[in-house]
Amino acid sequence: MNKKQLIMEKAIELFANQGFEATSVQQITEQCGISKGAFYLSFKSKDELMLALLDHFMEQILSDIDYLVRNSEAEDLLYLFYKTMFQSIEQRTDFAKIFLKEQIQTFNEKFMESMYSYDKLFDMVILSMIEQVYGESIEQSKYDLIYCVKGFLSTYSQFLLLYHVPVDIELLSKSLAEKTNILAKYTTTPFISHEFVQMPKDFPGEKVTKEQIIAEIEEKMSEMEKSIERESLALLKQQLQNPSFSLAIVKGLMENIRNHPHCKWISYLLNRYYKF
Known about the structure:
Elements: H1 3-18, H2 25-32, H3 36-42, H4 46-71, H5 74-91, H6 93-101, H7 109-134, H8 142-156, H9 158-161, H10 169-186, H11 194-197, H12 210-223, H13 228-241, H14 247-257, H15 264-274
Helix pairs in contact: 1-2, 1-6, 4-5, 4-7, 4-15, 5-7, 5-10, 7-8, 8-10, 12-13, 12-15, 13-14
Organism: Siminovitchia sediminis
InterPro entries: Homeodomain-like_sf (IPR009057), HTH-type_Tx_Regulator (IPR050624), HTH_TetR (IPR001647)
Pfam families: TetR_N
């Protein structure tokens, strides 16, 4: 584990237990066994650290869900979606609890802009899933369904984060898939229209560029030791700069990096860039 990863890991524990404002850089460095100077070599401020934690948390979940939607059969997709989401929350409860402890005003404008961007990307993935599962039968209500799905996730995740009771994620996922099917089948008075949720033209998540992906690859390669994933990243960067591989080879390289925690977001961006 490199120093940046260590700082992020210890900071999550402190923020979850004490709150963001109550945790000092000094406390973080003491937990890590490093100097303040070493902290500031990795992060310019505590706010920048919090933004990095948000990026890591959201990128892991979004990339997992996007891959699931692209590679699952429609009949199982809702159940698998809910199961994957709740498993992700269960595995990352410390980070999720930070948001329960903090008032929204605690975080700066850049943090809130990032939250907005990730929220819109999440909407896009849910919309893709809904269209795949229900087709044209929910054309008038699909935007309502996006918010219903997000509402289910927000409400039922409280059982994982707030209540000290065992949660059967399999049963919960089946139950929510059933509820979503009922809403999709019987909703006759949709409230949310396409115009209501339409993204602004300058929405930062709308288009992925090869320059953006190359920058992400270079950053992640600098943090990784020699491995098959690092070699695959180097080849994917080469392909973006000077295309020469077949799509089959590109897909193979992407499969090599898909499950590495440093590479999931790059895999997500590549999927959107190549429109696989």
